[in-house]
């Protein structure tokens, strides 16, 4: 089963936030906006413990949390809704898994510092009296009355045991034919589903693996402390490899200590070899030529023998302890171990053996049953890009995206890196912001963008997947974005703005070129839906067809091209903010407003009217319309700003206002 929605109240920077999740979800936004609070809240939901009054949301009126007083009403709650429940999930969750979704809430209260876990259970109408009755005179008559209403309930006679009645009710509720008759019972105690780490029912359904940004792998790998991230994985590996051999051997050979020692050694070696092979297969994608090796250290047998595992990292044939590796290598190893060690179909098949006296058919049936019971894997990573070389970060982003497409895997990342959100993944974004002292969140989808611009989802998808450059992802992380058609606009505007004392990047403004006028509409809608303010610089193209050497002057093809440019420009004016009311028009003068700049033709036509710029461009070996960006940049840094043409100056002034406005 997968997490589809989280509601968080009063946790750290979050007062009240509702967030939906996809199979791959990227949480982005400025520092302090609440991204990390979401993944830590989710980690607390699964594991519990560790909260204090300092974790309760504060409105900023006091720098320190108010001390706890008698009757304190402050609390923290995290509610998680799961969907895609499998038959195995439903069996394990019982009455909490009868609906299409399963919802649970963990709450911490300041007054007593205690936690409570409740869930929304489903049950048949009126079943509570028969199910909850404690006396024969209560549950038997109640069940008989239910049979009058639901004759399909089995006749258990007049002396039915309580257990038989409960079983009959559960069978009726589990029947898909009765699903629409079930009634929801909110806030039913569900503490029994959230036990010790590694043994909880909820972890048998969905196992969350959380990799925080600040994580010391040397203290995690091979550790079996209660709160380590690898406890349930490496710890379970050692327990499964050692304790099973102990138990099996004690039953069959109570006096053969030597045989037990051999059995444990072989069991641990097999398990560690299998896991090392799985980890190395993934690790090689991140760091070619790097592998890890588990070396079991098995003490002489004692009634409570324990196994430790030393983890060595082999780079180019040289083995060293993991603690002696760089942070990037350590983190890559940690994340691959977390993925590879969670039980999945491959690991279950690798470790599956036919037991003594077991038929092949029975062994296959047992393996099939084990596979059905496997949990889904929820991977939460805070700042996956940290300590990673850019090339490795891109590789890791691709691996996580591919991983999220595998069955029973969900990936959640809180990131500041555009590598982890390609343009076509914009619907997976949850963009956080801060209004006052509260976290806000924005998201959108292909369907919403299509509706906003009056186009089909197919056409939106085509622009996003085939036309937008990968650099567009930078806009998701920017405070403000200037969208331009081409590289010339970007290079000249950025250089001149810096020369004028208003470097756009320092103001959190990204200038992104979209490759043409026809590619501006969709990215504009996407950024606006994500609450990213935009400024658009667009070519009017009034002279484009007239100066083109492709057309004979006055020819029908030239007139057709002119009409096409007119149509495209007018379409842009129609959707630009205040475009129509501003008086902007095709073949009109260049104009700049608070929301956009529309050149009469293009920026190079404006630069032609700046003699000093043309001179500086010629001095560095360039010329207009050759698209040599290095030449344009050099000229922009050398030109005399006092002679700047009015349209260019107006554009920069309006852009400065845009940068300062938000």
Structural descriptors:
single chain; DUF2813 domain-containing protein; 6-stranded mixed beta sheet; P-loop_NTPase; 662 residues; TOPRIM_OLD
Can you lay out the helices and strands and say which pair or pack?
Layout: E1 2-11, E2 14-20, E3 24-28, H1 35-47, E4 75-83, H2 87-93, E5 102-109, E6 115-123, H3 127-132, H4 136-149, H5 162-174, E7 183-189, H6 201-205, E8 206-211, H7 231-252, H8 257-286, E9 290-297, E10 308-315, E11 318-321, H9 327-341, H10 345-351, H11 360-372, E12 376-382, H12 390-404, E13 409-414, E14 429-435, E15 438-442, H13 446-453, H14 457-466, E16 480-484, H15 487-499, E17 509-513, H16 521-529, E18 534-539, H17 544-547, H18 556-575, E19 591-592, E20 596-599, H19 603-608, H20 611-619, H21 629-638, H22 646-661
Parallel strand pairs: 3-13, 3-14, 8-12, 12-13, 16-17, 16-18, 18-20
Antiparallel strand pairs: 1-2, 1-4, 4-5, 5-6, 6-7, 9-10, 10-11, 14-15, 19-20
Helix pairs in contact: 7-8, 8-9, 13-14, 15-21, 20-21
Describe this structure in words.
This protein is an alpha/beta fold. It has 4 domains: 1-121 and 192-210 and 376-443, P-loop containing nucleotide triphosphate hydrolases (Rossmann fold, 3-Layer(aba) Sandwich), CATH 3.40.50; 125-181, no CATH class; 214-342; 445-661, no CATH class. Helix content is 40%, strand content 19%. It has a 6-stranded antiparallel β-sheet, covered by helices on one side. Strands 8-12-13-3-14-15 form a 6-stranded mixed β-sheet, sandwiched between helices. Strand 19 (591-592) and strand 20 (596-599) form a beta hairpin. The longest helix is centred in the middle third of the chain and has 30 residues, at 257-286. The model is unreliable at 222-227 (pLDDT under 50). It holds the Pfam family OLD-like_TOPRIM.
């Amino acid at each position: 089963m997968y997490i589809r929605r989280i509601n968080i109240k009063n946790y750290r920077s979050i007062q009240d936030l509702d967030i939906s999740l996809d199979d791959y979800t990227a949480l982005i936004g400025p520092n302090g906006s609440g991204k990390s609070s979401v993944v830590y809240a989710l980690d607390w939901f699964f594991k519990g413990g560790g909260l204090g009054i300092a974790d309760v949301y504060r409105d900023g009126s006091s720098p320190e949390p108010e001390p706890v007083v008698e009757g304190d009403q402050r609390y923290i709650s995290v509610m998680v809704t799961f969907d895609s429940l499998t038959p195995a999930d439903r069996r394990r969750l019982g009455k909490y898994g009868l609906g299409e979704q399963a919802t649970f809430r963990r709450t911490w209260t300041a007054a007593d510092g205690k936690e409570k876990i409740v869930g929304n259970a489903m049950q048949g109408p009126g079943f509570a009296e028969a199910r909850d009755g404690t006396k024969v005179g209560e549950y038997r008559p109640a069940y008989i009355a239910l049979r009058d209403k639901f004759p399909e309930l089995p006749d258990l006679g007049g002396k039915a045991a309580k257990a038989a009645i409960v079983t009959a009710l559960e069978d009726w509720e589990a029947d898909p034919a009765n699903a629409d008759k079930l009634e929801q019972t909110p806030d039913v105690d569900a503490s029994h589903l959230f036990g010790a780490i590694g043994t909880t029912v909820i972890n048998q359904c969905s196992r969350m693996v959380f990799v925080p940004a600040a994580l010391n792998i040397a203290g995690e790998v091979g550790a079996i402390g209660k709160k380590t991230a690898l406890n349930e994985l490496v710890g379970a590996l050692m327990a499964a490899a050692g304790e099973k051999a102990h138990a099996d051997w004690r039953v069959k050979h109570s006096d053969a200590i030597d045989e037990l020692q051999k059995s444990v050694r072989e069991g641990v070696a097999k398990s560690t070899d299998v896991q090392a092979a799985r980890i190395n297969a993934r690790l090689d994608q991140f760091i070619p030529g790097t592998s890890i090796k588990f070396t079991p250290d098995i003490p002489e047998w004692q009634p409570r023998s324990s196994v430790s595992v030393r983890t060595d990292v082999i780079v180019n044939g040289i083995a060293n302890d993991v603690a002696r590796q760089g942070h990037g290598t350590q983190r890559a190893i940690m994340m691959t171990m977390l993925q590879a060690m969670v039980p999945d179909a491959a690991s279950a098949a690798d470790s599956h053996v036919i037991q003594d006296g077991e038929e092949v058919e029975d062994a296959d049936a047992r393996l099939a049953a084990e596979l059905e019971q496997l949990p889904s894997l929820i991977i939460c990573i805070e700042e996956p890009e940290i300590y990673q070389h850019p090339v490795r970060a891109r590789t890791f982003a691709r691996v996580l995206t591919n991983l999220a497409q595998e069955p029973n895997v969900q990936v959640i990342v809180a990131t500041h890196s555009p590598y982890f959100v390609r343009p076509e993944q914009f619907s997976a974004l949850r963009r956080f912001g801060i209004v006052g002292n509260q976290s806000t969140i924005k998201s959108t989808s292909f369907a919403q963008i299509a509706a906003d611009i009056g186009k089909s989802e197919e056409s939106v998808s085509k622009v996003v997947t085939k036309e937008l450059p990968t650099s567009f992802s930078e806009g998701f992380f920017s405070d403000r974005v200037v969208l331009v058609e081409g590289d010339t606009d970007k290079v000249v505007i950025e250089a001149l703005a810096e020369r004028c004392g208003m470097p756009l990047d320092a103001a959190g403004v990204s200038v992104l070129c979209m490759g043409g006028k026809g590619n501006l509409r969709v990215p504009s809608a996407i950024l606006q839906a994500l609450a990213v303010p935009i400024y658009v610089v667009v070519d009017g193209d009034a002279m484009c067809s007239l100066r083109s050497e492709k057309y004979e002057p006055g020819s029908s093809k030239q007139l057709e091209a002119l009409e096409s440019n007119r149509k495209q420009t007018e379409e842009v004016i129609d959707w630009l903010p205040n475009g129509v009311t501003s008086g902007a028009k095709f073949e009109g003068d260049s104009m700049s407003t608070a929301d956009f700049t529309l050149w009469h033709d293009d920026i190079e036509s404006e630069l032609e009217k700046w003699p000093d710029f043309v001179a500086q461009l010629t001095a560095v070996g360039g010329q207009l319309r050759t698209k040599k960006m290095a030449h344009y940049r050099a000229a922009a840094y050398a030109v005399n700003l006092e002679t700047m043409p009015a349209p260019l100056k107006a554009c920069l002034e309006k852009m400065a206002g845009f940068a300062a406005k938000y």
